Amino acid sequence: VSTENELQTALYNHQFVLFYQPQVNACNGTLIGVEALIRWKHPKRGIVPPSGFISVAEETGMIREIGWWVLKEACQRMKSWQDQGAPRVPVSVNLSFNQFHDDSLVKRVCHALEVSGLCPEYLELEITESTMAEDLERSIKILNEIRALGVGVSLDDFGTGYSSLSYLKSLPINQLKIDRSFVLDIARSNRDQAIVTAIVSMAEQLWIDVIVEGIETKEQLLAIESCRCRAIQGYYYSRPLAEEDFSENYLA
Ligand code: G
Ligand code: G
Ligand code: MN
Ligand code: NA
User: For the EAL domain, which residue ranges apply (predicted)?
Assistant: First the structure.
């Protein structure tokens, strides 16, 4: 188990890296976005996934410093890829609870855009319902500030919280990500199909984009498509890729 000290050392010694998972249009396979996902290149333990250190980082508050690094790195990487001819699509960055509730959030976002030169429309912040649940009024205010910059906001893990519909009603988001728990049995479950279809049509009328994550099989893909959802992210299309693998596949 990692400690605060180890995380500090890791950050200082550049042991964190970002992987990038493509988001695609299921109809034609076009790239529509990329989610940045952190990994720890540990000198002894190899590549450590977020499950091995995010909770310690959250508890100790280290998640903020790590998260600000992620934000900057993702913006710089995407700008550099765009300069090298990559498709012009947004990069999605996950925001932790502590980052969202940090008073410097908006300033940090501006700074990351400024130093990278990335246009705001190519940055999207993924925020979970539970992160915003505590103080809805304040969350709305923060989201309005973020949206005013031209940066997108995606409601991550949609459907797993307690009152998804009230969030949908009041939060100024432009995308929602249907949680992969709805995808798991979708090929067999009429109930899951009904729920996903309803979410898609509701979002459509609210002018909110929908993406589904966790598509692993052809059967799941077909079922999701029949729910009229086109945007997908999942192992079926691609696992999260190391930077160089992403470059190799998308800069040609
Ligand atoms: O990459 P993977 O699917 O293993 O990620 C597991 C979890 O870690 C997901 O819930 C994801 O949102 C979270 N995660 C990945 N990268 C980051 C990050 O940069 N910041 C935060 N706060 N969470 C992340
Ligand atoms: O909570 P969040 O949406 O940020 O989680 C993203 C996580 O989901 C990443 O850790 C990523 O590796 C994982 N992931 C992406 N696609 C799939 C998939 O098809 N199946 C599973 N089981 N996990 C996936
Ligand atoms: Mn996410
Ligand atoms: Na999610």
Answer: 1-252
